[in-house]
Amino acid sequence: MHWSLRLFCGFAVATIALGAEPRAQMRLDSDWGFHRGETEGAFVSEFDDTAWETVTIPHTWNNEANPPAAHYHRALGWYRKQFMTPSKWKGRRVFMRFEAAILVARVFLNGKELGEHKGGFAAFCYELTPYLKSGANNVLAVREDNSRREDATPLSGDFTIYGGLYRPVTLIATAPVNISLTDHASPGVFLQQSEVTPDRARIAAVTKVSNGTGAPRKIAIAVTVFDERGSKVVSQRQADEVAPGDTRPITAYLQIDRPHLWNGLSDPYLYTARVELRDGGRVADTIDQPLGLCFFRFDPALGFLLNRRAQ
């Protein structure tokens, strides 16, 4: 999405509200091994990293050079982390979310490559379930590279490209059928306004549902919009079926009469849209998303108009 007013007019702010249930999460902050530079075989579970430096995430390998000078390192670094998942996560799907890594990260779990992410500022997420060892140690390895690459942003700027896992890393456990976490690490919920006026707001709530089981699942999506006081404004429900191993978008349409409009710094009003995924009658997953509603246009005489008011 291009940077524009569409970022907040009818589109959800990039904040994910993850409740304790039915999702569970665990931060991986401490006791990471770090090695500056390339080292052969570091992705293998049995690799000996006892001589590596112990670091805490978030981390960069250039934090001691301020301003960066002779010690500035723009090349490769390896991270390794051992972890066990809680026993109560057995039978659940498990994901790992990286809030960011700069610039290119290759991620391995127990010797298997999960994927490569390019770009220094975006989050990324992988599913661990097929390679995860329940009740045993798991070895995560990340090969990080902050060298200049023509295929990874940023290419340059008036800032230092420090390198490393400089934002949090989190394990997330969900039910077998969930609201997708792996759609470019988005919340899996997209709130799209089709019409907004002082009289009404029409919204399409698109939820990407992932079926991690081996059978078709009949599911229902319930979308409820609350005002700032927590009072229910409108609710809609949409039922559908998701094929085994499939991820598909399911859309619910809502209308808010006489909406309270988002109006910049003078009145930054936000609703909350709660999306519940029901599988077999029980709540399998839930996401809360902030929702701001507004409309705008450019007038040759008056300039920029937000909610019909000149700014």
| Extended strand count | 21
CATH classification class of the largest domain: Mainly Beta
- As laid out across the biggest beta sheet, the strand order is 3-2-4-9-6-7
- SSE class: mainly beta
Number of domains as seen in the coordinates: 2
Inertia-based shape: flat
User: How much of the residues is beta strand, in percent?
Assistant: over 45%
CATH architecture of the largest domain: Sandwich
Fraction of residues in H or I helices: under 10%
CATH topology value of the largest domain: Jelly Rolls
Number of helices: 0
- Give me the CATH superfamily of the largest domain: Galactose-binding domain-like
Distance between the termini: 24 Å
Instruction: Give the biggest beta sheet.
Output: 6 strands, antiparallel
Which spans have pLDDT < 50 for at least 5 consecutive residues?
1-20
CA-atom Rg in angstroms: 22 Å
Instruction: Please write the string of helix (H) and strand (E) elements.
Output: EEEEEEEEEEEEEEEEEEEEE
Average pLDDT reading? 90
